[in-house]
Amino acid sequence: MKAYLINLKRDEARLAAQREQFARCGLNFERVEARAEGRLDRFRWWCAVLRAPVQGELGCAASHLECYRRLIAGGDGCAAIFEDDVKLGAGIRSALAVAEAKCREDARAVVMMSDHRKKREGELGEGAEIRTEKTDWEECSEGYVIGREAARRLLEKETKTRVPIDYWAYFARKGWIRLYRTVPAVCAQDRVAFGSNLGERYVVAGKSWRERTWWRLRRLIGSVIDRLLG
Question: Rounded distance, CA 210 to CA 173, Å?
């Protein structure tokens, strides 16, 4: 199974750090040039999440879609996708093995190997259990394995995508993918080392009940509008 690492050309320090980290874990990757921006119908996006997209989110989505194109063109059954701010845990190789097996068994599978709910130091595990994931929209995109059919469907539905690329449960509810997760998480976004905070302004964990309720209401309204748009 091939692994792709998304990296902006100007982020040479990140690339060097990831080459060292992947080598330590006995892994290789193919670099994919990240995009600093992307295009998307802003009205359709707003209708789904009730906010305007951040330009970095559009570039991020375009970068991941490029990985999917390479997967399809290469003819493999699945691929591992990493962003260049990923931190790998000791269990990454065993998790990749079970995630690959799941995606070859179910070509529509996306197996998350990271978890934004467990991003503090010392919380990355060594296990590799696969579980069906049923959660809210916010997921993560710094480390996952995607099956060929899931990648094909996301590319096919690109014009109907109205959310960031890491809102995996949204895609699962539409039936485009089947969502799984490795338990425990074996990689995470290393915000300390790389200063990554895209989308942090939208995190509602730990906020007041009023803010959490308002966020859920926005999602409900957005999902209704999304269904009406088809």
Answer: 26
pLDDT at 18 over 80: yes
Strand order in the sheet with 78-83: 30-33, 2-7, 78-83, 143-147, 109-112, 178-183, 129-132
Q: What is the DSSP string of 92-141?
A: HHHHHHHHHHHHHH-TTEEEE-B-TTS-STT------EEEE----S----
Q: Which amino acid is at 40?
A: L
- In the chain the domains, ranked by start, together with CATH numbers, are 2-229 (3.90.550)
The pLDDT tens digits for 144-194 are: 999 999 999 999 887 666 677 777 888 888 889 999 988 888 888 877 777
Tokens of 168: 């995996």
Q: Quote the CA–CA distance of 143 and 84 in Å, as a whole number.
A: 10
Spatial contact of 45 and 52, defined as CB atoms under 8 Å apart: yes
